[in-house]
Design brief:
Elements (H helix, E strand, L loop, with lengths): L10 E4 L7 H6 L4 E5 L4 H4 L2 H8 L4 E5 L8 H15 L3 E6 L1 H13 L7 H4 L11 E5 L11 E6 L4 E6 L7 E4 L9 H19 L6 H23 L4 H13 L15 H13 L3 H16 L5 H12 L7 H18 L16 H11 L11 H10 L2
Parallel strand pairs: 1-8, 2-3, 2-4, 4-5, 5-8
Antiparallel strand pairs: 6-7
Helix pairs in contact: 4-5, 7-8, 7-11, 8-9, 8-12, 10-11, 10-14, 11-13, 11-15, 12-13, 14-15
The chain binds 5,6-dihydroxy-NADP and zinc ion.
The site of zinc ion (ZN) has 6 residues, from helix 7.
C-alpha cells in the first residue's frame, strides 16, 4: 500500500428539501453572492425562483449561460470580472458539473491579479480562492466533492483539468429531486462518467481488497440505479443512490493507497471534448471498452478477471482470457443498453483529426505514466478502434 494524505473539507448536505438551509449556510460566509448557472434548466425546474426567494437580503450578482464543457472565454473571464467589480464574497453555483467547474476557476481567478489562464494552465499556483457553495442538479462528475474543474479554451482545443485543494466547495447541497428532470441522454452520460471514475481507480497496481470492493460496489450500484432512473426519472430512491455514488466516485477516496492509475481514459476524452465539444460521459463510454481491449495482456489479466467475476457475475471457472473478453463485451453492452452511441462517428467525430488529437493527448496528458503506459501510437490505435 502506498503512502497517502486525504482531506475533503466539503460539507455534504444531502436529501429532499435541504435547500431550506441555504440562507443559514451561505450567510456564515458572506452576503455578496455571485449566482452562477447554465442555459436555463434551473428556471424550468423552479430552482432559480426558489433560490432568489430564500436569498432575500443577500446582494446577488448573476452569471448565467455557462455552457456544457465550460468556456474560459467568455464564462470564466466574465465571472472573474463580476467578482472584482462587485466585491463578491461567495460564489453560489446552481446546476451541473459545468457550472460548478466554471465557478471553481472563477473563484481562483477572482483572487489573482493576472490572466486567470496562468492558474488554469499551472503557470502560477493560486494562493487564494473565493469560497464556493453549490446546489447540484445533475449526478455525474463528483465535482461537488472534489477540488477539480475542467475548463475549455476553444481556440486552442484545450480542455484542462484544473486541480487545487483551494477549490473544494465549502458546502454542497444535494437534493436528488432536482435531478428528476435530467433528460435520458444526460442521465446515461452521468452513469457512464461515474462508472468510468470507478474504473479509472480500479485498473491500477497495488489495489487493496477494500478499494476493489468500493469500486465494484460503486459500479454495480450505478448500473442498477442508473437503469432505474432511466426507467422512471422520478424514482427518488434510485436518483438518490446514483447521486450519492457519483459524489464519492471522483475524489480518489476509492483508491487511497493504490498506485496512481493516471486516469488514461479521461486524458483521452478531454481531447475529444476539447476538439469536438461532445458530452464527456458519452466520449468516455466510447473509449472505455476500446481502452480495455488495448491494455489487456498477461500483466493486466488478473484485474479483468476480478472485474468480470465480481461486477458482472461471470463464471470464475471459465478460462481467464475468456472471462476478460466477456467483461469487456459486457461493459460495451451495458453502455449500449442505456442508449449511448458507441462509436465516435455517431457523435460527429471522423478520422480526419485523429492523428492531431493523439499528438495533443500524448504531449499534454502524461499518459506515459499511466497504469499501462500509452504512447502516441497507442492513443491513435485506441481512437481508431473507437471510430
Ligand atoms: O445548462 P443547463 O440549462 O443547466 O442544462 C444542463 C446542460 O445542458 C443540463 N441539466 C443540468 N441539470 C439539469 C439539466 N437539465 C434538466 N434538468 C436538470 N436538473 O444538462 C446539460 C449538461 O450539464 P453539464 O453540467 O455539462 O453536465 P455534467 O454535470 O455531466 O458536467 C460535465 C462537465 O464536467 C466535467 C466534464 O468534462 C464536463 O465539462 N468534469 C468535471 C469533473 C470534476 N470537476 O471533477 C470530473 C469529470 O470527469 C468531468 O471531466
Ligand atoms: Zn469524468
Amino acid at each position: 500500500m502506498q503512502n497517502f494524505e486525504y482531506c475533503t473539507p466539503t460539507r455534504l448536505i444531502f436529501g429532499q428539501g435541504v435547500i431550506a438551509r441555504l440562507p443559514e449556510e451561505l450567510g456564515r460566509i458572506g452576503k455578496k453572492v455571485l449566482l452562477t448557472y447554465g442555459g436555463g434548466s434551473i428556471k424550468k425546474i423552479g430552482l432559480y425562483q426558489k433560490v432568489l426567494e430564500l436569498l432575500q437580503g443577500f446582494e446577488i450578482t448573476e452569471l448565467p449561460g455557462i455552457q456544457p464543457n465550460p468556456r474560459y472565454d467568455p464564462s470564466v473571464l466574465d465571472g472573474v470580472r463580476l467578482c472584482k467589480e462587485h466585491g463578491i464574497e461567495v460564489i453560489l453555483s446552481v446546476g451541473g458539473g459545468s457550472v460548478l467547474d466554471c465557478s471553481k476557476a472563477i473563484a481562483a481567478g477572482a483572487c489573482y491579479e493576472g490572466d486567470p489562464w496562468d492558474l488554469i494552465s499551472y503557470k502560477v499556483k493560486a494562493s487564494k480562492a473565493l469560497p464556493i457553495v453549490d446546489i447540484l442538479t445533475l449526478a455525474a462528475t463528483g465535482c461537488e466533492y472534489d477540488c477539480g474543474g475542467v475548463i475549455s479554451r476553444t481556440e486552442t482545443n484545450d480542455k484542462i483539468g484544473y486541480i487545487d485543494p483551494l477549490l473544494f466547495p465549502v458546502c454542497s447541497f444535494l437534493d436528488p429531486t432536482y435531478t428528476f428532470t435530467v433528460p435520458p441522454t444526460q442521465t446515461a452520460a452521468g452513469i457512464a462518467d461515474a462508472m468510468n471514475h470507478s474504473l479509472e481507480q480500479y485498473f491500477c497496481e497495488d489495489a487493496t481488497l477494500m478499494n476493489d470492493g468500493f469500486c465494484e460496489a460503486g459500479l454495480k450500484s450505478l448500473m442498477v440505479n442508473g437503469k432505474a432512473c432511466l426507467k422512471n426519472p422520478e424514482d427518488y430512491t434510485a436518483r438518490a443512490e446514483m447521486m450519492f455514488v457519483c459524489t464519492l466516485a471522483c475524489n480518489n477516496i476509492m483508491s487511497l493507497g493504490n498506485s496512481a492509475s493516471g486516469w488514461p481514459m479521461h486524458g483521452i476524452e478531454h481531447a475529444l471534448s476539447g476538439y469536438y465539444d461532445i458530452t464527456h460521459g458519452e466520449g468516455l463510454a466510447i473509449i472505455t471498452p476500446r481502452w480495455m481491449q488495448h491494455i489487456l495482456s498477461e500483466r493486466t489479466l488478473p484485474r479483468f478477471v476480478k472485474y468480470g467475476v465480481n461486477v458482472f457475475g461471470i463464471n470464475p471457472a471459465l478460462p481467464e482470457m475468456e472471462i476478460a473478453q466477456r467483461a469487456i463485451a459486457a461493459t460495451h453492452a451495458f453502455f449500449e443498453e442505456i442508449g449511448i452511441p458507441m462509436h465516435l462517428r455517431e457523435v460527429g467525430i471522423g478520422p480526419e483529426r485523429i492523428g492531431e488529437m493523439a499528438h495533443h493527448i500524448a504531449v499534454n496528458e502524461g499518459l506515459e505514466h499511466a497504469y499501462v503506459p500509452l504512447t502516441e501510437k497507442d492513443i491513435t490505435q485506441i481512437l481508431l478502434a473507437s471510430m
